[in-house]
Design a protein that fits this description.
Number of strands: 0
Largest sheet: none
Radius of gyration: 27 Å
Helix content: over 70%
């Protein structure tokens, strides 16, 4: 059972690195971007320069701002709807591969236990064939079998920590999108300066 556990650990590391890169790129400073939009766009003007700047800035908030600015000439409800649609487009990228991490967290301890049980069966079978005249052979087999349990539990702990970290980062980005999206709507509709 160590081979599936090794495979799970490789997948977990690969997804962890991928999530780290994607969430780092998606996370951006909304205050800084909103200030830049206010410098480049005044009500009634052409939003194209500010929109291009938002796209170059990147990140989830940059893309949401660009969509809001594209609809700047419309009423508040239309701008809000455009921003909500863009935010909905960002969610799958923020939550991608999270079910795989959760699956690894759930199956790793079970694979470890299955490896231990298989090792114990082998050890007891060897003991039944040779007798208990050589207990080191049996104890060595049991000791080796327990390695898979320790590996499975360790993998699950690491995966659980990664899952919670990435879930919290995604939640923070979504909250930032909602907050700064509302701030942009307020600015574009003249509710605030």
């Amino acid at each position: 059972m160590m081979y599936p556990l090794i495979l799970c650990s490789i997948v977990l590391v690969a997804i962890g690195l991928e999530r780290l890169i994607v969430l780092r790129k998606a996370n951006s400073d909304g205050d800084e971007l909103l200030d830049e939009v206010k410098k480049r766009y005044r009500l009634g003007g052409d939003p194209e320069e500010a929109r291009k700047m938002c796209l170059e800035y990147g990140g989830a908030i940059g893309r949401v701002f660009a969509r809001g600015l594209k609809n700047a000439h419309r009423d508040a409800d239309a701008i809000e709807m455009a921003i909500e649609q863009e935010a909905a487009n960002e969610l799958p990228a923020l939550e991608a591969n999270m079910p795989i991490i959760k699956t690894i967290v759930n199956i790793a301890p079970l694979l470890g236990l299955l490896g231990t049980i298989a090792g114990m069966i082998t050890s007891f079978r060897a003991a039944s064939q040779t007798g208990l005249s050589n207990p080191t052979q049996v104890l060595g087999g049991i000791s080796e079998a327990l390695v898979s349990t320790a590996s499975g539990i360790s993998l699950a702990v690491v995966g659980f920590v990664l899952f919670n970290y990435f879930a919290n980062q995604s939640k923070k980005i979504v909250e930032d999108i909602e907050f700064y999206g509302g701030e942009l709507v307020n600015y574009l509709t003249g509710r605030i300066d």
